[in-house]
Design brief:
Blueprint (H helix, E strand, L loop, with lengths): L2 H39 L13 H34 L19 H29 L7 E7 L2 E6 L9 E4 L1 E5 L4 E7 L4 E3 L8 E3 L5 E5 L5 E6 L12 E7 L1 H12 L8 H13 L36 E2 L4 E2 L9 H9 L1 H4 L19 H11 L12
Parallel strand pairs: 1-5, 4-10
Antiparallel strand pairs: 1-2, 2-3, 5-8, 6-7, 9-10, 11-12
Helix pairs in contact: 2-3, 5-8, 6-8
Bound molecules: heme C (HEC) and copper (II) ion.
Length: 389
């Protein structure tokens, strides 16, 4: 072998040797990489994308599985091919270690094969996926519910008599009747969020200044868990939601209850709480029938909205569905509710100084005032038609 010829071989050989020596470093990191993958894949236990319940979610799941099976088949084929090549073309004792195998470039058969097969696979996937994309964003004959995302909770509004006025406004839990394809008009009141209840449908962004149409449905009653899936600031991870799917009769009863405005409580402690509420809370919160002045678009919050509290106790959770409203024995989770009212930003990272989230009352309210306020909150409807199991 001449010296000239061997230059190219040296270039192709030396880096190889270096790489071989570096391999253990990658191996050392493998457990960490695997651990990260495992931990990030099971962050929230009750939000389950692998168990579709509604028609739309099943449609998505079918396509996911199909493409998963196809990718697995391709992956197995490639893995086997790699092993075959490694074994078949390995260095043998009588091989000249400096000799390169026969170099080929532009083998038409090979090039065509590995271009045409992936193209066919992708075209097949597109044929299955594109109609589903249009189908999922189509409207149904069912009712329409308004969905609004804001830092860091969801608002749901219902126009029951279709006069264009929101008759029911609630937070964090969207209540729907079983077996009906519900239309959603999804909006945002501040930054981009994304609405996702995986067992009922895929993700849909909530974008300021736009209305995105979406649908959810469930053939069975139950509570289904979701969360915001577009990073939206400090408490993005604490912006969860629930879909409460009710039998038709239960749904009608829920609607009737939600349409009933609140009244001024007679009980003295609750009445004291009611008065305190009028002093400290109505600059942000609405209670239908008694405290409606805050209205919407209020200046104390960037989004202009705080949860409507008229039927607070009919919800199973509060504050972006991160706290349970009721304990396992069915009694109210008074401790968390009181803690929330005392110092919300301490219980859920927020930026009240930036008009994002609820302010703290730790310096403002005495213990007995807090008790009275909670006593008042307990009069605001309830209990929920369905409890989490
Ligand atoms: C500066 C505006 C503001 C004031 C004043 C305010 N809140 Fe809030 N409150 C909010 C916001 C915003 C949320 C939603 C926070 C979240 O989920 O991150 C909230 C959430 C709540 C919730 C949970 C509701 C739900 O369904 O998730 C309760 C209960 C509550 N506030 C009670 C009170 C009480 C009682 C007072 C008066 C002592 C009060 N708030 C004063 C802005 C305010
Ligand atoms: Cu969000």
């Amino acid at each position: 072998m001449s010296a000239k010829k061997s230059t190219s071989k040296e270039i192709s050989h030396n880096p190889m040797k270096q790489r071989v020596f570096n391999t253990p470093r990658i191996l050392r990191h493998t457990p960490l990489i695997l651990l990260t993958a495992i931990l990030t894949s099971c962050a929230t236990g009750r939000i389950d994308p692998t168990d579709p319940v509604g028609e739309n979610a099943k449609q998505i799941d079918g396509i996911m599985r199909l493409s998963g099976y196809m990718a697995t088949a391709v992956g197995i084929f490639v893995a086997i091919a790699v092993v075959v090549v490694i074994v078949k073309f390995r260095e043998k004792p009588d091989d000249d270690p400096d000799e390169l195998p026969k170099q080929i470039h532009g083998n038409r058969k090979a090039e065509l094969t590995w271009t045409v097969i992936p193209v066919l696979l992708l075209v097949f996937l597109a044929v299955v996926t594109i109609p589903a994309v249009f189908d999922l964003s189509g409207k149904s004959d069912g009712r329409t519910i308004q969905v609004e995302g804001q830092q860091w909770w969801w608002q749901f509004s219902y126009d029951v008599d279709e006069d264009g006025i929101h008759d029911i406004v609630t937070a964090n839990e969207i209540v729907i009747p079983v077996g009906e394809e519900i239309n959603l008009d999804i909006r945002s009141n501040d930054v981009i969020h994304s609405f996702w209840i995986p067992q009922l449908n895929g993700k849909k962004d909530a974008v300021p200044g736009r209305v995105h149409h979406w649908r959810i449905s469930s053939p069975v009653p139950g509570i289904f868990y979701g969360e915001c899936v577009e990073f939206c600031g400090l408490s993005h991870a604490n912006m969860q939601m629930r879909a409460v799917v009710l039998e038709r009769d239960d749904y009608e009863a829920w609607v009737q209850e939600q349409l009933t405005p609140a009244t001024i409580p007679a009980d003295t402690a609750a009445k004291r709480g009611y008065d305190l509420f009028g002093r400290h809370c109505v600059s942000c919160h609405v209670v239908n029938g008694v405290y409606e002045s805050a209205g919407n678009g209020n200046a104390n919050l960037t989004s202009g909205y705080a949860p409507n509290l008229t039927h607070l106790m009919t919800r199973t959770s509060f504050a972006g569905s991160i706290f349970e409203m009721y304990k396992d024995d069915g009694s109210v989770n008074i401790a968390d509710l009181r803690e929330w009212v005392r110092n919300a930003p301490e219980n859920k990272p927020s930026r009240p100084d930036n008009r994002q989230g609820m302010i703290s009352f730790a310096e403002t309210l005495s213990d007995s005032e807090l008790d009275d306020l909670v006593t008042y909150l307990l009069t605001l409807g309830g209990p929920p038609p369905l409890m989490p199991s």
